[in-house]
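hiii, so i know i said id send this last week but things got crazy w the move. better late than never?? heres the sequnce for the chain we talked about at the cafe, plus the structure i predicted for it. fair warning i was half asleep when i ran it
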Amino acid sequence: MPHGHSAHAHGTRAQSADADEGRLGLALALILGFMAVEVAVGIVAHSLALLSDAGHMLTDAGAIGFSLMALRLAVRPARGAMTFGFRRVEILSAQANGVTLLILAAFILYEAVRRLFDPPHVRGYLILIVALAGVVVNLAAARTLSRADRGSLNVEGSFQHILTDLYAFIGTAIAAGVILLTGFQRADPLVSLLIAALMIRSGYALVKASARVFLEAAPEGLDPQAVGVALVGQAGVVEVHDLHVWEVTSGFPALSAHVLVSGDCDCHAARREMEAMLRERFALDHTTLQVDHAVSELIDIAPRGQRSQPS
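okay and structure toks below
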C-alpha cells in the first residue's frame, strides 16, 4: 500500500517546488555576485559593517543553497521506511539557517565591541556606494522570495536572511552618511551591533519555530484543548483520550486520537463526521481516529486468593 498523499498532491507539490526553486536560484545568483564586490570594497574601506554584511551574505548563500536541496528532497514520494518522505528536511534547513544567524551574530558582536574602543579609520564614501547598491540588490532578492511559498519554514528561513541583510545595508548607508558628515568613526561598529541584534532576532525565531516541529508541539494557533472539546461535542461521543496534534512539516498538521462512542452509535459514521468537522473547523486533513464503543459492563476479575471454590 503506498504511503503519503495521492499522485495528484505529489504533482502539485513538485510544481510548487519547481517555482520556488527558480526564485531561490535567482536570489542566490544576486547574493553571490554582490557578496564578491562587498568583500573587496570592505577590505579596501576597512569597514566592519561591510565585512559583517558580506559574512551575513555568505550565510545567505549557504542558507539558500541548503533550501534548494531541501526543496528537492521534500518532494520525493514516500517509500520504504520513510513513510512521510523527506518533507521534514525543510525544517532541518530552517533550523540550520537560524543557528548560522546566531553564530555569525556572536562573532560580529565581539568584533564590534572591540572596534568601539579602538575604531579604525573607514572610507565613508566607499561604504555609502556599496551600501546603497546592497539595498537595491537585497530589495530585488527579497521581492523574488516574497513570491515564493513563505508558508514553508524552509523558504521563510531564506527570506529572513535576505530581509536582515536589507535592514543591515540600510543601517550601513546611514552609518556611512554619519561618517562623511561628522567624521564619527564609531558609527560603523555601532551599526554592526544593530545588524547583530537583527540577526539574533531572526535566528532565534527560526530556531524556536523549527524546534516546535521537532518536539512535535501543536502547530501555532491550534489549541489541542479546543480540538478535544470539539470532538467530545460531537453526537454520540462519550470520551476522547490519547489526543495528539503535531506538525510533520510546514503546512502539514496531523492528529490522532482514541474516541469512545455510545453503544447505539455507528462507529464508521461517527468517524466520518468527526473527520469532516476537523477538516472544516481546524484545517486538519491528516487525521487518524480510532473509534470504539464505550463498554459499560466490565468483567469482574477477583484476586487468586478470593476465587470461589467449586462446591
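btw The two ends are 56 Å apart (CA to CA). thought thatd interest u
miss u guys!!
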